[in-house]
Write a structure and sequence with these properties.
This protein has about 325 residues and is of the alpha/beta class. The protein has 16 helices and eleven strands. Strands 1-9-8-6-5-4-3-2 form an eight-stranded parallel β-sheet. Strands 7-11-10 form a three-stranded antiparallel β-sheet.
Length: about 325
Amino acid sequence: MIVTELTTMFDLAHPIVLAPMGGVSGGRLAAAVSNAGGLGLVGGGYGDPVWLRSELELVRSETRRPWGVGFITWSIDREVVELALGYRPHAVMLSFGDPHPYAGLVKDSGCRLICQVQDVPGARMARDAGADLIVAQGTEGGGHGGRRATLALVPAVVDAVAPLPVVAAGGIADGRGLAAVLMLGACGALMGTRFYASDEALGSDRAKHRIAAATGDDTERTGVFDIVRGLAWPLSYPGRALRNGFMKRWQGRESELAAAVATEFTVFQNAARAEDFETAMVWAGEAVDLITAVEGAAKIVTRTTAEAEARLRSARLLAPLPPDDATCTRIADRDPT
C-alpha cells in the first residue's frame, strides 16, 4: 500500500485523483473512482447549474467515500460554488485562474481546496490563497493546459510550495507514471485521459475507442475548438486533442475561423450530436499510447497502484557499496604515478 500526504488527507487506499473533465467526469465516474479508493472529482466545467445538480446528486448517492468537484475558475461565479458546496463535497478543485475570489468560501465550508496550476508562479499564488493541495499539470495532458512539461514542472512546484503537498498531472496513464511522479516528490497522480476511456465516463463510446486506438503523435494543442464554440479561453491555455479534419483545416487560420464562426458553429454542433469526430473534438493527452482498451474505473485505479508498487519495489538500480576496507585496499594498491 502506498501512503502519502494525499492518501492521508482524504483517507484513500490509492494516491489517484480523477481529473474533473467537463462533460466526461460525471457523478457515476467520480463515484466509481472514489469507491475504488481514489478521489473522484466531478467535472463542473463552466458551471451549468442544471447539469451540476444532476451529477452531484448522483455522486452523493452512489458513494460514502470522499469525493469532490472541479471548476474552470475564470468561467464561474460565487453562486455556482455555493451550489456545489451545498452537496457537501470533500474537495473543490479550481483550475485556470486566480483562486482567491472563491478560496475563503470553499475553506469556510470545511471543504478542502485543491488548485491546479501550470507554472511555478501559479503554484505560489495558489499557496497564498490557502490551497490545501496543489496539482501541477504538465502540457502532456489532454484538454486545456500550459506550456511546461510534467517531468520538469512537478519537482519545481514541489520545491516552490513545500511543505504543501503536490499532485502531478499530465501524461500519466499507468503505474509507471505514478511511480515516476512519486519519485519527483509528488504525493499522487491526477489522471484524465485514462479515465475518459472508461466504462463509467460520460460521452461517446466512439470517442473512447478513438482514444484507445490513438498514439501520442495523434495529439496536438490547439485553440480552434474553443473558437468555434465561442469560448473565451485565454490564449495561454490551448487544448490538447486528437488531430482530426477540422483541426487540420483551421489550425493556423484562427482569425478566418473566428470570422466564419456563425456558420461553422452550426456545422460543429451537428457533428458533435452525430458523433462525427472528424469535426468534433476528442480531448486526449500524449499518454494515449498506453491506453489500449475501455475498462472499468475500479480496475484502472487498482491496477495503476499495483503497477506502481511493483515498480517501486523493484527499483534496485544502485550497485551495493563495497566494504570500507575493500575500498581502502583498492585505493592503496593504485600506482601513485
